[in-house]
């Protein structure tokens, strides 16, 4: 646990970068510092590993004032990842990753073996071990940066805009990789970004800072989106915060319609003749997987003539945001719900999803603590 207690930083020129900041950063979680340019995020991060000394206040790690430890020992207990990775250009990838273990006195063999293990952990091809940083893409270099920071297995990881220099697709991949690694390793991660979407994707808790280095709100992403503390936070969250908030609501409670789903070999004349048959039905293959939409009164039974069903959503794993997106994009206004094996569980229309959203909001208003199913849907 890192405790930032009433910490301020005034630089020599009089700039107040951080103003009486207090934050509790728990173990086994990702705490994000987010806010506009110049609001003091980097300064806060650097005070944790004493690259910047606070003007006042105290920072403790597991109850111990960080000033009571030699600065080198403190820094080695904290991995540090920066934008553009900051790799040593004249060292191979393997030796970049092995840097801290070597500084700690490990033998070359042991440090390199550890580095090779970390390359695998962060998703780097072992064939890259002997390359130099300039021979890697930006995204690959960032992975090396993460591997290097993890090399001595520090309990704390400080990440300063680690993924800002790569394109959105690579960035998304790096975020997913970080969440996967964190699931395995359970570090105390402090992650700086100015991108609210990134904060919401990777953060267990998000500290929104405002210019002048003051804390505007410290909350879970879900809480932030549903109850911004003030107009500044609301504006920073952006115009679509309502839609983004649906990412935290589970599809488990959705009422699915099974009466509009039929396997391809059904008696279509009989189905078309029924009074209660919907105007559009979803046709599945013999294994229960979706094939496409049909109007049973006009369809001749050819699979090629079916209207594409588009993307499906998985009940329980995907959020209401995904379900709504699928319904909006569907030619029939209905989203196709499947299980983990891809078999159709039913279909659900926009009205039903809207009702589920209202019900989830009512439940949340009655019990503001997010339930496990809501948390589970967050990723
Ligand atoms: N060494 C320094 N001397 C004087 N002022 C500084 C120094 N370093 C940072 N500042 C100022 O302190 C304030 C906070 O800077 P900081 O880098 O912590 O912000 P940030 O939120 O990380 O910004 P960005 O998102 O642009 O990286 C800014 O006004 C900045 O100009």
From TrEMBL:
Keywords: ATP-binding, Nucleotide-binding, Transport. The keyword Cell inner membrane does not apply. GO terms for molecular function: ATP binding. Residues 2-237 form the ABC transporter domain. InterPro entries: AAA+_ATPase, ABC_transporter-like_ATP-bd, ABC_transporter-like_CS, P-loop_NTPase. Gene3D superfamilies: P-loop containing nucleotide triphosphate hydrolases (3.40.50.300). Pfam families: ABC_tran. Belongs to the ABC transporter superfamily. This is ABC transporter ATP-binding protein. It comes from Streptomyces siamensis.
């Amino acid at each position: 646990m890192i405790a930032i207690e009433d910490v301020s930083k005034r630089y020599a020129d009089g700039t107040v970068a951080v103003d009486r900041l207090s934050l509790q950063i728990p173990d086994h979680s990702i705490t994000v510092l987010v806010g506009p340019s110049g609001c003091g995020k980097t300064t806060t991060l650097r005070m944790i590993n004493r690259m910047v000394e606070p003007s006042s206040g105290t920072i403790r790690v597991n109850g111990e004032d960080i000033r009571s430890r030699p600065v080198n020992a403190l820094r080695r207990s904290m991995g540090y990842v920066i934008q553009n990775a900051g790799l040593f250009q004249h060292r191979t990838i393997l030796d970049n990753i092995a840097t801290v273990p070597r500084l700690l006195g490990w033998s070359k063999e042991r440090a390199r073996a550890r580095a090779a293990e970390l390359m695998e952990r962060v998703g780097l091809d072992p064939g890259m071990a002997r390359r130099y940083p300039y021979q890697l893409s930006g995204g690959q270099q960032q992975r090396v940066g993460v591997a290097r920071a993890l090399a001595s297995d520090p309990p704390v990881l400080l990440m300063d805009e680690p993924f800002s220099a790569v394109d959105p697709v690579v960035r998304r991949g790096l975020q997913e990789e970080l969440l996967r690694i964190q699931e395995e390793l359970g570090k105390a991660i402090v992650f700086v970004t100015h991108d609210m979407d990134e904060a919401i994707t990777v953060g267990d808790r998000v500290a929104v800072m405002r210019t002048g280095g003051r804390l505007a709100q410290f909350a879970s992403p879900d809480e932030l989106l549903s109850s911004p503390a003030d107009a500044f936070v609301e504006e920073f969250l952006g115009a679509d915060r309502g839609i983004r908030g649906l990412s935290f609501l589970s599809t488990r409670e959705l009422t699915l319609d099974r009466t509009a789903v039929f396997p391809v070999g059904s008696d279509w004349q009989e189905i078309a003749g029924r009074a209660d048959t919907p105007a559009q039905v979803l046709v599945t293959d013999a294994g229960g997987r979706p094939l496409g939409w049909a109007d049973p009164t006009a369809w001749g039974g050819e699979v090629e003539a079916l209207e594409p069903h588009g993307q499906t959503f998985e009940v329980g794993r995907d959020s209401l945001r995904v379900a709504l997106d699928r319904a909006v994009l569907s030619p029939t206004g209905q989203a196709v719900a499947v299980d983990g094996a891809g078999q159709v569980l039913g279909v659900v229309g926009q009205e039903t999803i809207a009702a589920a959203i209202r019900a989830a909001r009512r439940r949340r208003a009655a019990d503001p603590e997010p339930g496990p199913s809501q948390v589970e849907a967050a990723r």
